Amino acid sequence: MPDGDAALGKKSSTDAETATDRGRNGWGLSLRYAETAICLAESTGSGMTFKRGRYKKWQAYGGPTQEEVRRSILLSVVELDRPVAELQSVLAPLGWDYPEPLVTLTYTHIRSVLLRFLAGKLDAKDVEAWADLVELRDDIEFADERTLEVIHMLSTPQIHFTIDGRLAEWLLSPNSS
Predict the structure, then answer these.
(1) CA distance 119 to 110
(2) pLDDT tens track for 50-109
(3) What does the radius of gyration of the chain's CA atoms come to, in whole angstroms?
(4) In a 3-state reduction of DSSP, which class is residue 141?
(5) How far apart are CA 28 and CA 16, in angstroms?
(6) pTM of the complete model
(7) Cβ-count burial 81-114 (b if 16+ within 10 Å, e if not)
(8) How many angstroms separate the Cα of 78 from the Cα of each of 11, 55, 141, 152, 169?
(9) Are 156 and 162 in contact (CB under 8 A)?
């Protein structure tokens, strides 16, 4: 990674390389913005304060705004593109309350998670923890009532149904609506 101002996002000859790296880090951000997401995870938890003032440097060089970083993290959460424990630690400093939704969770996201569960890539605890992460957040909107109901069901298996292959297949079937 380039040193100095180039590493902070200042225009340089490596910007073309950085632009081609978009999405490779799994956050949907270019690699030069990955440190911002990590910095966000290191925040104190009281609002959006950042250690060592790195965020202000990024912003001065045209880096992502706090809202863009938040949106990117939320997209990772709804897409479950990282291990649940990692997403929990990055999401923790953001807080639940937000003035408006930044991302929309659709049934396609649920379907993707359930298919990975059936394929053995996720276990029931991962599915429950993921559903718990997205439920009741002001910054995540649900595409429809069915999506909200299924997330509630998955986040509270102790009062609904145990998360198992039968439940996943039923939720994936066209008759489950």
Answers:
(1) 14
(2) 333 444 445 556 778 899 999 999 999 999 999 999 999 999 999 889 999 999 999 999
(3) 18
(4) strand
(5) 16
(6) 0.68
(7) ebebeebeebbebbeeeeeeebbebebebbeebb
(8) 32, 24, 10, 14, 20
(9) no
